[in-house]
Structure formats: structure tokens, C-alpha cells
Design goal:
Elements (H helix, E strand, L loop, with lengths): L1 E3 L11 H10 L5 H21 L6 E2 L7 H8 L16 H9 L9 E3 L6 E3 L2 E2 L11 H11 L5 E5 L1 H6 L2 E2 L13 H18 L3 E5 L9 H18 L3 E5 L7 H8 L6 E5 L6 H7 L6 E7 L9 H15 L4 E5 L18 H5 L4 H15 L5 H16 L6 H8 L12 H12 L16 H11 L5 H22 L16 H4 L3 E4 L6 E4 L2 E3 L3 E7 L6 H8 L7 E5 L1 H6 L9 H21 L4 E5 L14 H16 L7 E6 L8 H6 L4 E4 L9 H5 L7 E4 L12 H12 L20 H25 L1
Parallel strand pairs: 1-12, 2-6, 5-7, 6-8, 8-9, 9-10, 10-11, 11-12, 17-18, 18-19, 19-20, 20-21
Antiparallel strand pairs: 3-4, 13-16, 14-15
Length: 765
């Protein structure tokens, strides 16, 4: 029985690629140095899978930034502003598209479906001249082959690539991106032909958009694309891989009728209803790559249950045509549990990271072939039983408090307009008030202090002293820049979710459980294994300390319950909304303690609220109801004079704007500049927004420093659709990934732009 892995984490077990990328970007190492690190990581990944007995090992899933940007490079679809003149795309052009450069901004970045991974959105139009401009897929196949590993090259499918793209600036928004299919298919044919010539026997096309709500025209594009590719694909086994949700019956029918396709990869973890479609109709002689091992979470597979599912499928598709696989790429999980030396033994027995999931896939394949490892299965069953019965998982008081939430919508008693009036009397802010989103640059010295404190190398007194000094530096800088509402810069936090999870019960933490978010940015998601509560205040000391250093309003900085949920590895033994309500109650306690401590502005970030939106429209309403309710629970008890902010970033918000309004925050800051001010279109179309709002005026994920004039122009565009008295001026997101040499001039220009507009507005009266 064969086994398959959809994709694998790229960063390395100790984030080797992250450090190599950042060294290259900082001009401390060469392109050759970066390529050497990358080649070493690829080699170890392929060898690991081969040694584990995996038959279908993927190649071209490694990326220096993301796989969609790799496809943009492959197709030569470089926007003109980057000055690319043809030929093989090098690092300069590639990273300029991802990160921008001194003269031009980066391309838009958005979330990869409903994950915390991001991709660079292709900008396309009728005049794009596509050309075969990156031979990465073929080069990596040959690289693996030279190492003795015959891989399955993976390409982002042509239809998904176009459906994930957007019309370039200046192109009509109604432009049909699918009309470009005839222009990109010749390049796919060139790649396929080269892979065949190099000896490939299988090829994998990732077409994850098949799980979305697609219309007949979009489904027809898949039929047309693979019919066109059929003759070129002749002689190859072709796998179409889908993931993250069920297929609709229409999408499933389209998939199994595609020309020239040998196999179908289906997510049977998040797409359990797809099994019913397989039972109803599976084409004879085709392969089913059954995704029964979860690529999105870190819980050990219930091997007995999965084996039962596989045996039922085997009876339908045939013994020789069933391949055991992961539900999606393992990119979304941590790399290797063996690196976790500090995890509690009981909790560790419940987990499986990418390396362990590879072993699970192969163990299931062998069991299905009659070579069951009885000891491995018995150990797994013991761990499953331990998790179900462990007293550390359940807290009756928490469950009772969460159950008591039913029956109330937890809205603040006064409407937002009256609250804003009360807050303005207390805060006395100018029009177009300026603020930042929370974090300030995380210097090497600051990271060293936190690291040494965790390792007990410095005392708590010395740690507190160092953090206070950093807060004072950030406060002084903001006062010098004349920012209106300040932040303390979050020097005590490595990560906005990890920091809170470490102080909440029901969470466990890893040492090296890093997961790539975008580019070199990695996060270490907490593991929610049990009921959640807050044993003691988490941020009050630091916020109060910061407020004591200034007479200006200081924001208390919290992460919201939905974002903590969506950016954690969440327990899978109860509905997600129940866990979210528990987190909301914990954050509510913190909000009320901050208010008692004299903090008059409290930001509760919900950066990931949109990210968690289900891929199916039919499931949106239920999710948004409990997600928005969870946010309101956190601040329903504060006074009218306490101003509640929230922040959202890097997703398409236009389709949930009414739910954002229903959150009933006093002020929302929201990513806007990198997405080419897409957010503003919803207000141009007549949506009325009465609360405070700060669409981001510059992109913090690029090292580029915007001018005062550029920021003023953005503010003017906002004033065309938003009332002056509700508009805030702020960056797109937090500043932790930037250097002070970039942050100071950018914020200086931002404040100057706000003051310029205030003067112009005053003189126009």
C-alpha cells in the first residue's frame, strides 16, 4: 500500500531558512550562501521521507517566500514597476515583488484560504506577457533525482492560480482573470515537457480553489484547462490535489471527469462529507489519495479510526488504487516533536508534528497492506485514551461559566455615537488622531534579555528593569514624534498569542514548534489542550507602568479570543466556538482589570477574525455569529468613557463589513495600504460606518519609507468616503519586524501628513 505527503515545512527544524533569508536581505551573506542552506534543507526533507518509506515524495514545495509567488515567477507575470526585462527571474526581482524595495511597494499579501499562512497575490491583466521565467520546478526535481529520490513535482494548478489572482492596477475590476487561461497553459506545457524529459513519472497539480463555492463558468475552466493539457500530460500520472474543505457535488463531478487525470487527492479531515461523494461515485481504475492524517493540527492521529476509514474506502476504490496521504501540506504544522525537550510527557504523547505525521502516514499504509505495527498502534491507542480521560483537560467552573453565556448578546448598553462623545470629552484628541498598532521593533538586545530571563540567566529584577527602560524609550520616541495615542511597544512579548497563552490555563508551549506565516516570519502557536481560564492579570503591570510615563493616553494591548483561537493549535475534542467563549471570558477579566488600573484606551486585536471564516458561504453566518459574540463578551462590562479598539490585518474584509460593524468596537484599525486601498471601496459603495476607523496609511511589511505627501494622499482618499471626525491615522500593522531606522522616518512622515491635513481642513472651514 502506497503513501504520499502533500507538502512539507520549509523553514527547517531550527528555522534555518529564516535566518538565511534575513542574513541575505541584510546583505550579510550571498545568494550562494542562501542557496546552500536551502539545498541542505531540501535534501534532508527528501531523505527523511524516503527513509520513512513514503512512496510519493513531493518536490517544488520548497519556497523562498511562497508557492504562489513561485508560480508568478514561473509564468514571468512580473508587474512592470519592478523593471524586469525578461530572462530567468533572480532574487532581486523575486524579493522586490514580495517585500518591495526602496523605490516601489510590494505586491499585496493575503491569507492562504483559512490558514495563518500568507501568499503574494498575482496582479494580472490583458496586457501581461507571460513567459517561462523560472525553472525551479524542473531544477528541484533533478536535484532530488541526483540524490537518488524520484519525486512528484508539485505545481500550483493553472485555474487556482488565476482564481487567486486580482486585476492589476488600472485594469477593470470586472476583467475575467480566467480569460488568461489560454495564455498561461503554453508555459505549463513547457514545464510539463521538461519534467517528462527529466524522468518524472508523476506530477501533482494543487487546485485548492475547487473546495470554494464556484459557479458553472469557473468549474468549466478546470474542464477546459485539463482538456488542453491532456496531450502534453500523456505518459505521466497526474494527481489533482484539493484540501481544506469538502467538495461540492458539482466540484467533485468536475474533478473526477477531468481529462488526463490519474488520481485525486482529497482532504478527509476537514472534508468528511466528501467520503459520501466517493461512496456514491468513484471512477473505476483511478487512484484516491486519501488525506486522513491532519496537516493543519498537531494532535496524534487516531490510527484505529483512520484505518477503519481507509478499509471502507479500499472496498470502494480497490486495494491497489488507494494511497494514504496527509489532508494538506504539512507546512501548517510544526516540524519535529523530537526537538521538544521541555514538553510535559503526557501532553507530548498526545501530539504529532510533521516528522511524526510522515511516520503515521506510512504506518497506516503498511497496516492497510497487512503489515500492521501492533506496538505502534497500541501505543497510539493508549495516548488517545489518556487524552480523553486526563483530569487536566476539564475545568468544571470554566465550563459552567461558558454555558451561562447563552441568552445574552453581550452588547454595551450605550450606542457607539454616544460613547465616542463621552470618550472625546475625556481624551480630548485632535481630529485625525495618530496612533500605532502596538508593537515596536524587536531589537537583538531586547530578544537577548527575554531569552536570558527565560533561561534563568538574569534575575527578575534585572529583566523588569530592562523592559521598563525599553518601554521608556518607546514612550519618549512617540512623544517626540507627537503621536496622540501611545503604545508601550510590547517589549515583553515575543508573539502576541504566545504571550497570552503562556499566562492562561489550558495551554501548552513548545520550544521549537515554529510554523511559517510568510517569508521569513515564523510563529510558534500555543497548543490548547484543555479548558481555558485566567489565573491572574497578564498585562496590567506593564500597561500601568507605561501610562505612568506619559500624560497622553496609553493603549492597553490585548489579543482577542478569536485570534488566540485561530492562531493556536486548537483542541479537536470539542467545538471551536466553545473554546473561543472560554478564552473570551478570560480576556474579559483582563479588560476589566485594565480599566480599574486607569487605562482608558484598550485595544483587543482580532487580526485573525476574517481568517477563520469558513470556505463555504453556507457556514459563514454561524461562524460570524459566535466570533463576533466572543469579541463583544470581552468588553461588554466597561464604562462608556473607556475606548475599545480592535485591529484586523491582511485579509479581504469587504465581505464581512457588516459583521465588523456588529463587533461594536469604538475604533477599528485595519490593513488597507498594501491591498491597494481595497477596503475603501466598501465605503464608496454606501456602507455607513459610525465608529472610529483607521485604515492603514502605509505597509509595515516592506522596508520602504513612504513620504509625507504619499501618506497625505492616502488620507485624502479616506476622507473622500469617511467622516473627518471618525478617521484615525495609523500604519497597517505592528512594527516589530521593522528596524528603528525605518520606523522613525515613516512615523515622522505619518504624523506630518496628519498635521498637514488638519491644517488644510481647518483653513477650509
Amino acid at each position: 500500500m502506497a503513501s504520499h505527503i502533500v507538502g512539507y515545512p520549509r523553514m527547517g527544524p531550527k528555522r534555518e531558512l529564516k535566518f538565511a533569508l534575513e542574513s541575505f536581505w541584510d546583505k550579510k551573506s550571498s545568494a550562494e550562501d542562501l542557496q546552500k542552506v536551502a539545498a541542505g534543507l531540501r535534501s534532508s526533507i527528501w531523505k527523511q521521507m524516503a527513509d520513512a518509506g513514503i512512496k510519493y515524495i513531493p518536490s517544488n514545495t520548497f519556497s523562498y517566500y511562497d508557492q504562489v509567488l513561485d508560480t508568478t515567477a514561473l509564468l514571468g507575470a512580473v508587474p512592470p514597476r519592478y523593471g524586469w526585462n525578461g530572462g530567468e527571474i533572480g532574487f532581486d526581482t523575486y524579493f522586490s515583488m514580495a517585500r518591495g524595495n526602496a523605490s516601489v511597494p510590494a505586491m499585496e499579501m493575503t491569507k492562504w484560504f483559512d490558514t495563518n499562512y500568507h501568499f503574494i497575490v498575482p496582479e494580472l491583466g490583458p496586457d501581461v506577457r507571460f513567459s517561462y521565467a523560472s525553472h525551479k520546478a524542473v531544477d528541484e526535481y533533478k536535484e532530488a533525482k541526483a540524490l537518488g529520490v524520484n519525486t512528484v513535482p508539485v505545481l500550483v494548478g493553472p485555474v487556482s492560480y488565476l482564481l487567486l489572482s486580482k486585476p492589476a492596477k488600472g485594469v477593470e475590476k470586472t476583467f475575467s482573470l480566467l480569460s488568461l487561461l489560454p495564455k498561461i497553459l503554453p508555459i505549463y506545457k513547457e514545464v510539463i515537457s521538461e519534467l517528462k524529459a527529466a524522468g518524472a513519472s508523476w506530477i501533482q497539480f494543487d487546485e485548492p480553489t475547487l473546495v470554494l463555492d464556484l459557479d458553472a463558468h469557473q468549474l468549466q475552466a478546470f474542464t477546459a484547462a485539463y482538456a488542453d493539457l491532456e496531450s502534453t500530460l500523456s505518459g505521466l500520472n497526474v494527481l489533482i490535489e484539493t484540501y481544506f474543505a469538502d467538495l461540492t457535488s458539482g466540484a467533485y463531478k468536475t474533478l473526477i471527469e477531468l481529462k488526463g487525470v490519474t488520481a485525486y487527492g482529497l482532504d478527509l479531515v476537514r472534508g468528511t462529507k466528501t467520503i459520501d461523494l466517493i461512496k456514491t461515485n468513484f471512477p473505476k481504475g483511478k487512484f484516491l489519495f486519501a488525506g486522513v492524517v491532519d496537516g493543519r493540527n498537531i494532535w496524534a492521529n487516531d490510527l484505529a479510526s483512520s484505518l477503519g476509514t481507509l478499509q471502507a474506502l479500499e472496498a470502494i476504490v480497490g486495494k491497489d488504487n488507494l494511497v494514504v496521504s496527509t489532508s494538506c501540506s504539512l507546512l501548517h504544522t510544526a516540524v519535529d516533536l523530537v526537538n521538544e525537550t521541555k514538553l510535559d510527557d503526557e501532553i507530548k504523547s498526545w501530539l504529532a508534528f510533521a516528522a511524526q505525521k510522515v511516520v503515521e502516514v506510512n504506518a497506516l499504509a503498511k497496516a492497510l497492506a497487512g503489515q500492521k505495527d501492533e506496538a505502534f498502534f497500541a501505543s497510539n491507542a493508549t495516548a488517545q485514551a489518556s487524552r480523553k480521560s486526563s483530569p487536566r483537560v476539564t475545568n468544571e467552573a470554566v465550563q459552567k461559566a461558558a454555558a451561562a453565556l447563552k441568552g445574552s448578546d453581550h452588547r454595551r448598553a450605550t450606542n457607539v455615537s454616544a460613547r465616542l462623545d463621552a470618550q472625546q470629552k475625556k481624551l480630548n484628541l485632535p481630529i485625525l488622531p495618530t496612533t500605532t498598532i502596538g508593537s515596536f521593533p524587536q531589537t537583538l538586545e531586547l530578544r537577548r534579555v527575554r531569552r536570558e530571563f527565560k533561561a534563568n540567566k538574569i534575575s527578575e529584577d534585572n529583566y523588569v528593569k530592562a523592559i521598563k527602560e525599553e518601554i521608556k524609550k518607546v514612550v519618549d520616541l512617540q512623544e517626540e514624534l507627537d503621536i496622540d495615542v501611545l503604545v508601550h511597544g510590547e517589549p515583553e512579548r515575543n508573539d502576541m498569542v504566545e504571550y497570552f497563552g503562556e499566562q492562561l490555563s489550558g495551554f501548552a508551549f513548545t520550544v521549537n514548534g515554529w510554523v511559517q506565516s510568510y517569508g521569513s516570519r515564523c510563529v510558534k502557536p500555543p497548543i490548547i489542550y484543555g479548558d481555558v481560564s485566567r489565573p491572574k492579570p497578564m498585562t496590567v503591570f506593564w500597561s500601568s507602568t507605561a501610562q505612568s510615563m506619559t500624560s497622553r493616553p496609553m493603549k492597553g494591548m490585548l489579543t482577542g479570543p478569536v485570534t488566540i483561537l485561530n492562531w493556536s493549535f486548537v483542541r479537536n475534542d470539542q467545538p471551536r466556538f466553545e473554546t473561543c467563549y472560554q478564552i473570551a471570558l478570560a480576556i474579559k477579566d483582563e479588560v476589566e482589570d485594565l480599566e480599574k488600573a486607569g487605562i482608558n484606551v484598550i485595544q483587543i486585536d482580532e487580526a485573525a477574525l476574517r481568517e477563520g471564516l469558513p470556505l463555504r458561504k453556507s457556514e459563514h453566518a454561524f461562524y460570524l455569529k459566535w466570533a463576533v459574540h466572543s469579541f463583544r463578551i470581552t468588553n461588554c462590562g466597561v464604562k462608556d468613557t473607556t475606548q475599545i479598539h480592535t485591529h484586523m490585518c491582511y485579509s479581504n474584509f469587504n465581505d464581512i463589513i457588516h459583521s465588523i460593524i456588529d463587533m461594536d468596537a469604538d475604533v477599528i484599525t485595519i490593513e488597507n495600504s498594501r491591498s491597494d486601498e481595497k477596503l475603501l471601496s466598501v465605503f464608496r459603495e454606501g456602507v455607513k460606518y459610525g465608529a472610529g476607523i483607521g485604515p492603514g496609511v502605509y505597509d509595515i511589511h516592506s522596508p520602504r519609507i513612504p513620504s509625507t505627501e504619499e501618506i497625505a494622499d492616502r488620507i485624502n482618499k479616506m476622507l473622500a468616503v469617511l467622516e473627518t471626525n471618525i478617521l484615525w491615522v495609523n500604519p497597517d500593522c505592528g512594527l516589530k519586524t521593522r528596524k528603528y531606522a525605518e520606523v522613525k522616518p515613516a512615523l515622522n512622515n505619518m504624523v506630518a501628513a496628519a498635521k498637514l491635513l488638519r491644517t488644510q481642513l481647518a483653513s477650509a472651514k
